[in-house]
Design goal:
By secondary structure, this protein is mostly helical. It contains seven helices and no strands. It starts with a helix and ends with a helix.
């Protein structure tokens, strides 16, 4: 029986009892027993490092986004520059058109003023020529008689001969060389009415009328 108990004691030894710190026990001198340190987690205090391939991929994506942003900025700047150049070109064209229109208006005004001055200067001559035309178109009492008609026919024949015998345009019109434009026009109208084939019965009246017309056309180009 005792042997069995001894064997049981050997197989199951009694755990030693741990005593707390003794303040007055011999050999302790008031010191505390060492405490067990808590077990730290295996991952505590270990810095996580990003994986190498993923970090490189993220940098490449950022660089690609920055490149796209720079390209977009460049396109926007180019579009703004093109719009500004187009607006400047349109403004230049509009200014040119306005200058041309202003020049045309100024030229038209100058022409109108010039015509007004010419009309005011030659108005008396034009009135005299008109009166002469009316007088030539209305035969007088003397011309309506047989004697008057004969004299008129003789005068017309002499005028036809004079015109056809003239060596120059001034001589054909019966004017001094260098006469003014108003005088030239008045004389041409008188001769044109007098020598017109419908009114002048003299021989070669048509040739004389054409000669007077050619002389006037030639001189009117150089006489103001």
């Amino acid at each position: 029986m005792q042997q069995q108990q001894q064997q049981h004691v050997q197989q199951h030894p009694k755990p030693q009892q741990r005593h707390g710190p003794q303040s007055n026990g011999p050999g302790n001198h008031g010191s505390h027993a060492p405490r067990a340190q808590p077990h730290a987690h295996p991952s505590a205090g270990v810095h996580k490092r990003p994986h190498g391939p993923r970090k490189h991929q993220t940098q490449q994506q950022l660089q690609a986004k920055e490149s796209e942003l720079e390209a977009l900025r460049a396109r926007i700047a180019a579009a703004e520059a093109a719009a500004a150049a187009k607006a400047a070109a349109e403004a230049a064209r509009a200014a040119k058109v306005e200058r041309e229109r202003a020049a045309e208006r100024q030229a038209a005004e100058e022409m109108r003023q010039r015509r007004a001055r010419l009309n005011s200067a030659f108005a008396p001559a034009f009135e005299a020529a008109a009166k002469a035309d009316e007088a030539a178109a209305t035969p007088d009492a003397a011309a309506s008689t047989p004697t008057g008609e004969a004299e008129r026919a003789a005068d017309d024949a002499k005028e036809v001969a004079r015109v056809l015998a003239a060596k120059g345009d001034w001589e054909a019109l019966g004017l001094a060389q260098g006469s003014g434009g108003a005088v030239l026009k008045k004389r041409y109208r008188e001769l044109a009415v007098r020598l017109h084939p419908d009114k002048c019965r003299a021989e070669d009246a048509t040739a004389a009328f054409q000669r007077v017309h050619r002389a006037y056309q030639a001189l009117s180009k150089f006489v103001a």
